[in-house]
Design goal:
With 169 residues, the chain is an alpha+beta fold. The chain is built from 6 helices and 8 strands, in the order E-E-H-H-H-H-E-E-E-H-E-H-E-E.
Length: 169
C-alpha cells in the first residue's frame, strides 16, 4: 500500500468487483471518463484477473481508501517509459467525500510514487472545461494548463472544450 497523509492507495482486489461495477456504470460521470457503454461484471472480473504490472499493462489502477473505506480510484494510463510520462485520472465516487482534501492527497501521493518508483518526469491529464472543480484540483496540485482542444467532447448534445494539463515532477 502507498500511504498519503489522509489516504492510502492500494491495488484493486476481487472483493472490489461490485464497487467497481457501480462506479464504472455511473452514467453521471461517463462524460468525464470517456465511457459510453456499461461494463458487465464479467468484463470487470476479467480485467481484475488479467492485471499484471505497469510495464506490460501500461496502466495502473489503485483504490483510494480513507479510514480503511474505499472512496475512489486513481488511474495511471498510457505509460511511456522512454519519455518518462504517464496520464493520470481520479474519481472520488460519492459527493459527500469530495472537498475534504482526499483527491489532493491522492494526487500528491501519486506524484511522489511516480517520481520515486516509476522514474517518471511528467504526469498529464485532460479536464473538460465544464468541470471547474477538477480544473482547480489539478492546478492546486501543481498542474499547468498547456493547451485547449476546442469543442473536443460532446456532452448532452453540446460540444465542450477540453484542457490538457501537465506537471513536471
Amino acid at each position: 500500500m502507498i500511504q498519503g497523509e489522509k489516504i492510502r492507495l492500494r491495488a484493486c482486489e476481487p472483493a472490489d468487483l461490485d464497487m467497481l461495477y457501480n462506479w464504472e456504470n455511473n452514467v453521471n460521470i461517463w462524460h468525464v471518463t470517456n465511457t459510453y457503454i456499461p461494463f458487465s461484471k464479467n468484463t470487470l472480473q476479467k480485467y481484475l484477473e488479467s492485471v499484471q504490472d505497469i510495464y506490460s499493462d501500461k496502466q495502473l489502477r489503485l483504490i483510494i481508501e480513507f479510514n480503511n473505506i474505499p472512496v475512489g480510484i486513481i488511474d495511471l494510463f498510457e505509460y511511456e517509459p522512454f519519455h518518462q510520462r504517464m496520464g493520470l485520472g481520479i474519481l472520488i465516487a460519492d459527493e459527500q467525500n469530495r472537498n475534504h482534501g482526499l483527491a489532493t492527497d491522492a494526487i500528491h501521493t501519486m506524484k511522489v510514487y511516480c517520481k520515486k518508483h516509476l522514474d517518471l518526469r511528467i504526469l498529464y491529464c485532460n479536464v473538460l472545461e465544464n468541470n471547474p472543480a477538477s480544473l482547480r484540483l489539478f492546478e492546486k496540485c501543481g498542474f499547468t494548463v498547456c493547451g485547449k482542444k476546442p469543442e473536443w467532447h460532446k456532452v448532452n448534445g453540446e460540444y465542450v472544450n477540453e484542457y490538457f494539463l501537465q506537471v513536471v515532477l
